[in-house]
Amino acid sequence: MKNIDPASLKVTSPINLKSLSAKLDLQASEKEIKSELKKIRKELGEWQDILYAHGKYAILVCLQGMDTSGKDSLIREVFKGFNSRGVVVHSFKTPTSLEHKHDYLWRHYLALPSRGKFGIFNRTHYENVLVTRVHPEYILSENLPHINKVEDIDQQFWDKRFEEIINFEDHLAANGTIIFKFFLNLSKEEQKERLLRRLDKPGKNWKFSPGDLKERKLWNKYQEYYEDAINRTSTEKSPWYVIPADDKATARYLVAKALHDVLLKYDDVQEPQLPPDIHKNINEYREQLKNEK
Questions:
Q1: Across the beta sheet with 240-244, what order do the strands follow?
Q2: Domain 6-290 architecture
Q3: Could you report the per-residue pLDDT of 242-260, keeping only the tens digit for each?
Q4: Burial classification of residue 213, based on how many CB atoms lie within 10 Å of its CB (0-12 exposed, 13-18 middle, 19 or more buried)
Q5: Residue 273's CB: how many other CB atoms inside 10 A?
Q6: Structural domain boundaries of the chain?
Q7: Can you tell me the distance from the alpha carbon of 257 to that of 6, in angstroms, rounded to the nearest whole number?
Q8: Could you tell me which residues come within 8 angstroms of residue 53 by beta carbon, excluding any fewer than 6 positions away?
Q9: How far, in Å, are 64, 153, 226, 233 from residue 168 at the CA level?
Q10: In angstroms, rounded to a whole number, what is the distance separating the alpha carbons of residues 162 and 146?
Q11: Is-contact 258 83, C-beta < 8 A?
Q12: What is the pLDDT of residues 263-282, one digit of tens each?
């Protein structure tokens, strides 16, 4: 199997999405890729147990991608081996009326992982500079001062919003949250095949919405705004990874390996030691248990 360094997928300079392939050949069968994922998943799960006991870091994993890019199944497969109490998944849909009564980051603050846990954002705070740029009329639902019509939403508005998102992530990182942002780079051709499978297989029909076809017609706009968001907000403390996603097994492996390669370098994450006064009496406690009647 080809050795891939996920760091090569990290955005450290401006990218052009059109020039990035949605496919990556690992020179391995699907069975071999799944076997490697299983090994990495086991090590990550064991590390997460230590993280939970250590209690000084939180991990935030952000997943973005076009419809059918495989976010749901990736979450299922990558985090399958984790202790369920240490992982919390949030899927962000259209904001509710209550959420619209607050600023756009409010609901994301509420969903952040506590120290010792992984938080998975299935769609993220970036929807506020992606879908809203494709459909700027959605901003009007936020009831913002001085924004009364679409024409009021200018470039300065978006520049400010990007600045707020960077500040949000910088604040999290400074307070112990390790952030990963993954863009699942799906080709338009592969999306078409996946949508057709949803229509052709009765067990997949429920996943299909006519709205998927409406949004597909806006593919180029989405790609433009994804590229802009990634280039503006990939930072050292909060990097983006562009993951080739036409093959689901490959995408899952790459995300898991990126997490593994970075997180296991945090050698300060260790199981806490017992207080000396308890540790010195371990043998006594052991005898008490053995001699119970």
A1: 87-91, 118-122, 58-65, 177-185, 240-244
A2: 3-Layer(aba) Sandwich (3.40)
A3: 999 999 999 999 999 999 9
A4: exposed
A5: 8
A6: 6-290
A7: 7
A8: 116, 271, 272
A9: 18, 21, 19, 11
A10: 19
A11: no
A12: 999 999 999 888 888 888 88
